[in-house]
Structure formats: C-alpha cells, structure tokens
Amino acid sequence: MALIDLSKREVHCKIVYYGPGRCGKTTNLLYIYNSMNSNAKGKMLTIETKGDRTLFFDLLPLNLGKIKDFDIRIQLYTVPGQAIYEATRKLVLKGVDGLVFVADSLRVRRQKNIESLKDLKKNLVDYNLDIETLPVVLQYNKRDLAGSPIPTLSLEELEEDLNSDLGVKAFQAAATKGVGVFETLKDISKKTVRYVATKHLVKPK
Amino acid sequence: MADIILTGPALEQARTQIDESLVQAGVHTVLLIDHAGNVVASCGKNRKDLDMTSLAALAAANFGATSQMARIIGEDDFSLLFHKGKKDSIHFAKIGREMILITIFGDEVSLGLVRLRVAELTSNIEKIFGLDN
Amino acid sequence: MKEKNTIPEPEIFTAEIEDTIDDLFKPSKKIEIDPLTQEIKEVQAEPEGAQESPLELDLKVEEQGPPPVEVEAEAAPVEDEKQETLLELDLELELEEQQGQGADQAEPQKQPESAAGQAPKAPDEPQDIGKRLEQLNQQLFTIEWEVTETQIHQTLDLLAELLAAPEVNAQARTHSIIELMKRVLQNMQFHPETVPATAPSVLKKSTSHLTDILTGKDVQEEDTEDILLELKALIEKPEETVTEAEPLFLDQEALMEDQGDKKTEEESRLEEPGPQGPAPEKESLHGPAPVFPAEEGLRVLEAHLIELNRCVNRIEPLEKLLSKTHGMEKLYRFQHDIRRTLEDQILELSNCFFKGRELELPKPSRSEKDSQDYINSISDKTGASCPWKELLTVNIEGMEIGFPNDQLVYASAPPWLSKSAIRKGESLTLARLKAWPWSKLKGLFKGALAGMDDSVLSAMSFPVIRRLGDQELKVPSSFTVIILYDGENGAALLTGEPPLPIKIPEDAEYTPEMGGGFEGQVNTNGNIIKVATASSLNQV
Question: What is the pTM of this model?
Fold first, then answer.
C-alpha cells in the first residue's frame, strides 16, 4: 500500500526483500546502507536478536528528494526468512509496493527457495495482491560461490525453479561484495515508483 | 488492503483534532501511522531526537504482532496496548482498519486521560478519513 | 476518499524519477561484508570495473571459470564508525524498569508531588461536578491498567471532593455510591488480596451510573440498587485477613446495616447459639438473615468499636506528625480523612446500638503512648524546635555558620610564628598555636580541652576544613582560628572574623541533616543559620 500524502506531496513506497532464510536479504540492505554516500539514505533499523537471523525485519529508508514538487520516499524492508517466522513475515509484507525475491544459489537451499516463493505468493493472495501486476525482480545471490567446491545451482536451474511462471528480470549477485546489489535496487525502485505513480498520480489515458 | 490517499483538508482536520484533544492535554507527541509503517501525520513536540520512521515501522510491526497474538489466543484484538516507561510511556490505538494512533506521554499525564481522549478521537478520525464504514 | 492528482507530463515525471534513482542509488565505495559475522570491511577499488556494470542474467557465467571467491580485504576494518550510525534495538529486557517501579512504590512521600500533575485540578476554585467525574473516570481507567498507591490516593481525593459537592449530597443514592466506591478503593489499598478482579470495572460502571444520575439522565432506581449491591459485593472479606491494625469499619458497617434491618428477627432467635466470627456478616449482605443472637452481636460490635477507637488513637499522632512535615500535606489529609471516617462510624454505631449505655472506650494505651513519644521525639528533630538556645556564629562566604557554644574550644588569631603554616596546612597541630616555642598550651583552650596537659595537647591535631557545602573556603589575610571539639571529633576553621554569640528564639525552625559538613539549619524569622558541629565537619 503506497501512502500518498497530497497535502505534503509525499509518496511513500515500500519495497520488500523476500526470500528463504540466510539468502542474503539483510546483506543487501547492509551493503546499500554502508556503501551509499548520500543524504538519500536514512538510518538503518535492524532489530538485533540473538544470532544473525532477522527476527522481525530490517528497514532502510531512502529519499529521492523532490521531483516535480513530490517528495519520493522508498522504504526497503527485509522479512525474516526462516519458515517458522511466517506470521511476522506476513506482517512486513503488508502494504508492499515492490518486491525483490532473493534466491540462494546454494544447491542445498533449492527446496527452500521454491517454498519461500510459494509462501510469498500465498501471502500476497491473502492481502489481495497479485504477483503478476506488482513490480517484482529476482536476485540470484551468492553467485560468487559458483565454481567453488560448494555445490551451487546453475542459473538455468534457478530460472526453471523460480522464474518460469513469473518471467521477470533476474539479477546475479554476490551481496557480500556488492555485486548486483545496486542493479537490483535501481531496477526495483524504478519499477515501483513508476507503478505507484501511474496508479495514483498520473492521469489515466 | 487499499491504498490510502490523504487529502490536505482531511489531514488538517485530523491534526487539529489530535492537537485539541491530546497535545493540549499535555501529551508530548502523537503519530498517526498506517499499518505498513508510514507516518501519516505527526503532532505535538517536534522532537529532533525522535526517529519517527523507525518508530512508525516498529509500531506498525508491534501492533501487527500483538494482533496476531490476540488471534492466536482467540481474541479479536487487544483493547489496550500500552508500554510504560520510567518517564515516558507509549499508547497505541487502532483507527479504522488501516491506521494506528501512537501517543507518547510523560508521567505528568495519566494513562486514563490518554485512554479516554484517544477513544473519542478514534471515532472522530475514522469519520474524517471515511474509515468508519 | 481517493482523489487523483494529475501530473501534466507523466513520462517526463517518471523519467525524472528514474534519472534521480540512477544518480543516487550507487555505491560511493567498495566494501565487503563478512558473510558470517556481517562485519563490514572497506575494499580498495579493483582495477577492472566489471562489477560496476549491471549483471543482467548471463547464462554463460559459469563457463567463465571460478570467480575470485575470497578477495581478502586489505584496508583496515572501519566497522566501528559504521556500526555507530546503525540503529540497533536490543530486545533484551531491561531490569531497571522494574526496579524503577519498585522504587516508586516504596517512596510514598513522593506521591504528593507527582499527584499534582496526574489529575490536573485547580484547588482554589470549586470545579464543576462534570469535570470531577471526568477526572474520576480517567483515574479509574488508569487503575484498570495498574493499581498503585498513588493512583488510589488520587482517586480517593477525587471521591472526597465529590462527597463534598452539594450536588452529591443532595441525593442519598449518589452519596452511598461514592461512599462505597471509597471503601472499595481503601480495600484495594489495604487488603488488595480481598478485592475481586472485577473491582476496576465495577468502579467504572459505578462512575458512569453516577454521571448519569448527576447529569440528570433518567436513571432507574433498580439500577442504582444493582450498582450498590455490586459495590458491596466487592468489599466483603473474611475476618481472618483482618489484623488488629487494619481499619475494621468496613465489616462493621455492613454488619450494622443488616442488623438494623433485621433486629427484631434476630431477637426472636435468641436461643440459637451464634458463631463468633463474622462469617454470617458475609452472608447477611445477600443471603438469609444472620443467625447469631442480638446480645452476641452486640458484644462483637462492642469489641469492634473498641478496636476502632484504638485505630483512631493510633492515627492521631501520625496525623499530627504529618501535619507538621512539609510535603506530606496530602498524606496528612488522607490520614485525617480516615480518622474522621472512623470517628463518624464509631459515633454512628454507638448512637445506634449503645444509646444510653456508657461505652468504655479505652484511653490511648501504652503502645500508643510509646508511638506518641516516638513521634514527639521525631518531631523534635524534624519539627519546630532547635536543639540549641544559643549559637556562636560567623559569616563565611556569605553563609551564616553557627557552632554550638560548648564545642568551641578555641577562637583566636593565629600566632604570627606559625600563621602561614596554619594557613596552608591540611591539618592543624595544636602545638602550632603556641605563641612562642617555649609557651604553654594549657590554658589556651576551653570546653573539652580545658585543663588538659601540654603533653596531650601538643600531640593533638585536627583537620582544617577547606570546604563547606559546595563552597570553597578562602582564607583572608588576617584570620581567626576556630576549633570545635566534642571530646571525640575535632575540626578547625579559618575565618575572617571571630564568632559572635546569638540567641535562638523559641519559635525558630530547625531542619536537621543537610550534609556537606552541616548538622542542620536554623531558621529564625527568615534568617538562615547553618549549624556545623565537630562531628558534622568531620564528615565533609
């Protein structure tokens, strides 16, 4: 749900990084937060819990500044990936305007990727949202491990598993090194703002 | 969940209401947020040290989490959501299905006063934003 | 409430947004995040900018051979400053909160101050009844969340104010409701274990009923009856929980009410042996008539009345003490109200049941006398009278400092031989007070040092006080040495002037224990004298 405040001429968009546990959603946000050097970023909020898993969510507010008198704000959220946090994951998804599905390239996580995407679709349906119309991009993370002795999924396999129905743009990434992080962010931000703006601010033709 | 589009006059009206019933009663800060964690309106002392974005995101999540808890134990919702601090306390109230009113107040204001005023305010704001049906 | 706001040139608008996104959303430096610890390291820029270019899905990526898996960062970790700006909320519980609350409750003397804000009122002008009822409602909403002594006090205060309002007194039913509410609250305070969990909601209900009556709404008599019954049900409690120091009037009045109604009935049951305890009292509120004979009942009642009277006698000295103590006004009023209520009950009950019969209510017993004495001794310390009838005073740094006459053993200008040594020294050895090396010390001192031999005196030394309260003491070029000694502690002061005796009037107010080297402070018609003694100066 985008919030559009016409009195202050503010547009808020919520982009959620979704995906199985430990696939690198928080790492994406951390990378953005720590490497971006501009006033555009706000304070990053992480709810620190025991261990390195996200229990609730992480939040990174970004501000595009004034464009045609409109203040455009983007909030990046991550969901807790572990299956058991289903309730909180669904909560964070509330009011989402754009989605990044982060998939794990590790072969052992193959099933988890598939289940997480299924879980995402189900949750969206519960909020009366359609994954077909909502801006979504895929990010295949941990590509730096392909070629290492650790068994990884091939891109074909990932495409086959996750993108055969969706057919959306997919980015390769190594979030710990920043590879693909900003490409993903830019793409989903553009799509999301365009989606929100077309829906509410632009006169339908 | 429907998108909320706020118009200037409605927001202004809501702000006035909040100001009259809570801020003038001595409450520090009142935030009207939506369930996605966006700040719709803020009234009262403009505290620079208050990270409203984070507060709103956490409050929305907290509110959502407690509603879930309520459902798990077979309640529709908890009627009183309140965190008491040594000096400042925070009170949450649901407004319609889409918004949450967060009231931050010090120990010079009683919880009872906040509860009563918020109860009145809730229905007024719901009317303003057309959330009452 | 949807309202479309149109942008004249949507394509330009979105293109502009996309340009801004391209401009802003880019890394300004290369970093690396440790996948395990999430530690952030800055990485020196790599020569090939391959990773800067967007990685569109490239199906041949795997054929390119293994990518560099671990590029060890060479730059020093800069995580410290990074982490600083990262807002982290730790979910661990803070125990302080709990302690803080505990402390609040353990310090009832703080209540009067905090009370003022919680239920805002203007004490001087009579408030309209509507406002008071609203405040009462607020209080009950607070109590519903958390029952604290402060909250109960404030609520009781409000009820007392309401009871004094003519609107309330005009109707018997409003008066009864408030009286009962008052008792429920008193029970919440003194016997919380006896108060059912429904109490706050019944109190709220009663308040709303009260409001209906007082705002002239059409209120059914039966509804009021129901409210009264519900309130009464809250204040029933078994006798076992009652200890002698607790106010007993609650049970007694309940007893009285029912006895009054059913007296003849009871008399007809004289032959039935009655149980001693008030278990029937409990039943009597709703259930069948009590089953003990009237004579027995009267005996119980008499015993209770005597006990009530004892309570009054115990409260009285406490009330006196509170009335004298600054900041305790609220507690005083509270005690006062309790005592008055008790006295009224005693009077009412004795008029009702013991008319024409002399009831032997005991005079204050020994224990009450003890407490009276104890309180007197405290009020000597805290209250009006100053322990000294005369003090020797000097003016130091604008403060008037007084010393007890009997502790001043020496006050004189220093001998010129040792003047500068005394001036600078941390302590003062009495030997330095000799005018000449061959002079005798004996005879120079008064009080506890008078008559001591030189061998003893010359070995004695006292600390020189350089600071009083938060005031650094400067030593003027010509000064007087003042020595206080009480037989155990001693201290020296270097003052600009010799001490002068001053009489302390009878009505001077004395406040003990101020710290900072003072024993207390005397207020004589607005003139403040801070009293320092040998022992208090040693605590600086």
Answer: 0.50
In a domain, C493, yes or no: yes
What's the CA gap between C129 and C142, in Å, rounded? 20
| Number of domains making up chain A | 1
A113 occurs within a structural domain: yes
DSSP H or E stretch at residue C279:
helix C279-286
Instruction: Answer yes or no: is C213 within a domain.
Output: no
Chains that touch A (3 or more CB pairs under 8 A): B, C
Residue C295 amino acid letter: E
Kindly report the CATH number assigned to the domain that includes residue A193.
Answer: 3.40.50.300
Min distance B113 CA to chain A CA atoms (Å): 30
Distance CA B6, CA B3 (A): 10
> Of all residues in chain C, what percent are helix, strand and coil, respectively (each to 5)?
50, 15, 35
Interface mutation vs chain B, best among C118, C133, C137, most B CBs within 10 Å: C118
Its ipTM equals: 0.88
| B chain contacts of residue A3, beta-carbon cutoff 8 Å | 3-4, 6, 34, 36, 38, 40
Tokens of B119: 């109860």
CB contact under 8 A, B112 and C2: no
Task: Confirm if A171 and C57 have CB atoms less than 8 A apart.
Answer: yes
Q: Residues for chain C: how many in total?
A: 540
Whole-angstrom CA distances from A21 to A45, A111, C21, C61 are 19, 12, 29, 25
CA distance B113 to chain C (A): 5
Over residues C235-286, the pLDDT tens digits come to 875 444 444 444 444 444 444 444 444 444 444 444 444 444 444 444 434 4
Range of the domain at A78: 3-200
In a domain, A205, yes or no: no
Extended strands (E) in A19-69: 45-48, 58-67
Question: What's the confidence (pLDDT) of residue C495?
Answer: 87
* Domain enclosing residue C444, as ranges: 390-537
| Residue showing tokens 């390119």 | C64
* Residue among C20, C26, C58 whose CB faces A172 most closely: C58
CA distances from A2 to A75, A164, C149 (A): 11, 28, 47
Per-residue pLDDT of chain B (133 residues; tens, 9 = 90+): 456 667 788 888 999 999 999 999 899 999 999 888 888 888 988 777 788 888 888 888 888 888 878 888 998 888 778 898 889 999 999 998 888 999 999 988 888 889 988 988 998 998 888 876 5
| C141 with B111: Cβ contact below 8 A | yes
Q: How many domains does chain C have?
A: 1
Q: Is B81 on the interface with A (CB under 8 A)?
A: no
Among candidates A147, A194, A200 on the partner chain, residue whose Cβ is nearest the Cβ of C14 = A194
What six digits make up the tokens of A58?
């992480």
Tell me the domains of chain B and their CATH numbers: 8-128 (3.30.450.30)
Is residue A38 included in any domain, yes or no?
A: yes
Query: Do the Cβ atoms of C100 and B86 come closer than 8 Å?
Result: yes
Q: Which of A128-132, C384-388, C480-484 has the lowest mean pLDDT?
A: C384-388
Rounded CA gap, C399 and C530, in Å? 8
Distances (CA, A) of B3 to A125, A127, B6, C334, C535: 16, 12, 10, 55, 75
The phi and psi torsions of C458 (rounded to 5 degrees) equal: -65, -20
Confidence of residue A76 (pLDDT cuts 50, 70, 90): very high
Cβ pair C485, C428 in contact under 8 A: no
Tokens 């009652």 map to which residue?
C242
CB B27 within 8 A of CB B111: no
Q: Does B36 touch chain A (CB under 8 A)?
A: yes
Helix, strand, or coil here: A156? helix
Tokens standing for A157?
């396999």
In a domain, A138, yes or no: yes
Residue C468 domain-assigned (yes or no): yes
* Residue C176 is assigned to a structural domain of this protein: no
Give the residue carrying structure tokens 């946090």. Answer: A85
